[in-house]
Structure formats: structure tokens, C-alpha cells
Amino acid sequence: MHGIQLHEDIFFMQLTISQKGNDLIFRPMHTKPLPCCDLDHIWHHTSDLWNCEAESNFFITGGTGFFGIWLLESLAHANQIGNLNLRVVVLSRNPEAFLSKMPHLVEHSFIHWIKGDIRNFDFPQESFDYLVHAATDTLSRNNFGSQLMELDGMISGTKRVLEFARCAGVRKLLFTSSGAVYGQQDSSHIPVSEDCMLSPDPLSPRSSYGIGKRVSEHLCMLHSLDTGCQISLARCFAFIGPHLPLDQGYAIGNFLRDGLNGEPIRFTGTGQSVRSYLHAADLMIWLWTLLFKAEGCRAYNVGSPTALTIAQAAEMVAANFSLPTQSQIAGNVASSTSVYLPDVSRAALEHNLEEKILLPEAIRRTSQWYLTN
Asked: Would you kindly state where each structural domain of the chain is located, as residue ranges?
């Protein structure tokens, strides 16, 4: 398996406990597979696509993150159920550490790992049919140095991946971009569509992520024009599901953390900022569909069209755990109100993609996975 050795002692069950404020965050050293109901849900809505991809080779970056885990497990499930004889190569900076936490993925002999940095990894000497570029470093944005590193990492990483795609003869490529490419949404662009001309403020130090994704999209477009590679750009918004980080500033993740700790579900200010959340199982249906059915170089918003306020999201999570909600006034409440909501009509009209798992059920499934994990 490309030089990776796993020692027997990593398979003993361990648990780490860290603290964030007054919250205890439990991180099992071993993580259970994704729920069968979620994997079956993905297969049910993508089986026709997968059945046309037998014997295909895949290359995946970002395979150890939230998106990556779902991509790998749903692909492995499709390979097993459909008897597709797929082959997958995953790029990771530390595959040994990842596989020590996810030992069930070691069982899949068709998944191979190469160790390297997205910016300068050595190219495997083989061809690939499909490439999914899902690697993104979301570093701390509280200091100038981190923002420079984040921007450079995204752009140089995308350049390296596209160079590899050319050498490997990749036919179709999926780039997981972000709704951050639109910058701050305003009242005249709610929800925001793919044709919207909004963009991140280049003079804001917090725009590095959105600008990096925007430049990466442009690089993908140039690559597609030059090589004929079919590229889909998935502008991803907000999501929920197993493996969602509970301590990285995502509102719905923070709410789930509070609920798992048996504490009131806390939100800041009036809670009137608007969001929407798509379950990761639905996300996978969208991403695999866009990868397999892309034409030219086309961007699609990916997310739930169901708008709700942060306060309403907190109330849904509170109801799931039978806990109260608690507002915390902090900073300038008026200026903290924001909107992050996609118009997904393009994905619906062109590829019949829609939200299937509604948020109350998504919250129930996600919390249950964490409780049993």
C-alpha cells in the first residue's frame, strides 16, 4: 500500500478528551464507519451513475477531511455494492495518522495512499479517469501570516493538481469551491446565484479563503480550455453530518457540541443571521453527480435552499436534545447579521438535484452518530 505500514498497537480503542471553554469535546481515537442508512441513501440515488464507471481510476486530494471521508466511504460502498472494480489513490500529508483513526478503511485494498503535500507532491506514474480536488487548508484567519499561507496554499496546490491532471490524462475533474467566492451577500442577491457578480473584498484580510477559491476556479477554467478536461466547480455552502467538526466555529457544529454536552444551545446576539444546511449524504449525491455529468467548465451552487435563522437552527438542535436555547450578546449585534444562502436552481434544472434529508432529520442522524461513536 505505497509504503504505509500500520502497527498492531494502533488498533486498541482509545479516547482523547480536550477542553474548549467549559465544554468537553470527546474525540475517539477510532471512528466508526458512516451509518449504513446514509451510505445506502447515496447509493440509491447514484447507482445508475456508478454502474457506468466500472474499472475506473480515481485520484482524490483532501481525502482525510470532512468532505474527503464522505467521498471515500461512499465510493467504497458503491464499489462493494456494485462490484465495480474501482481503483482509488488518495493524497495525504499523514495517511498513517488518518488510518490509525479510521481502521475500517484499511480493509479496502483498492484504496491506495501516497504521502505528500498538495503543493509539491510527486506524481504517480499512471493515468486516471477522474480527479476530485477537495483539499483546502482552513488555517486561523486571525493573523496576517496565516492568511498569506492559506492563500498561497490554495493557489499553488490547485496549480500542482492541474499539472498532475494534465500528465495523468484526467478526463473529468471536480473542484470543491465555496460560496465564499461571492463575498458578502446583500439584500439584492438573496439567495445568490452562480451568475451573480459579487466578489470578496480584496482589501479585507478575511477574504483570503474566498479569493483563493476564486483564483482556483479561474485556473480550472484555463485548464479546461487548454486540455478539454470536463470540470465541475461545486460552490459549497453549509453542511451537517457525521465528522462535521464541533469545535471550529461552525454554528451548527457548536450547537451539536452544546447538545452532546447536555448544555443549553448557545448562540450569539439576536440569532437573525440566515443560513441553510444540507446533510452530507445529500452532498455526496450532488458531488458525484456533478463529477460524472460535468460538461465543459461549469459552476454549481451546492447546499440547501431552505433558509432559516441561526436562532431557528439553535431551536431545532435544542428540540432534538430536549434542551433550552440561550442567547449571548457579544459585540455589535447589528453588524453581526449576515446571509449565506445559495440559489440551487441550476443544479435542480440541469441535474435534478435536490435536498432530500430535511434539517430536523439531519440533526437527529448526526447527533445519533456522535452519541454512538
From this structure: 8-372
8 Å CB contact between 154 and 82: no
DSSP states along 117-165: -TTTPPPPSS--SEEEE--------SSHHHHHHHHHHHHHHHHHHHHHH
The 8-class DSSP code of residue 322 comes to T
In order of 59, 90, 97, 162, the CA distances from 171 in angstroms are 12, 17, 31, 12
Q: What pTM value is reported for the model?
A: 0.90
Beta strand 15-20 with 23-28 is: antiparallel
Assigned C-alpha cell, 57:
481510476
- Report the candidate in 84, 24, 86, 33 with the shortest Cα–Cα distance to residue 369: 33
Class assignment of domain 8-372?
A: alpha beta
Per-block mean pLDDT, blocks of 10 residues, the chain (373 long): 32 36 51 96 98 97 96 98 98 95 94 97 97 77 68 96 98 98 90 96 93 97 97 98 92 96 92 96 98 95 97 97 84 68 98 98 98 89
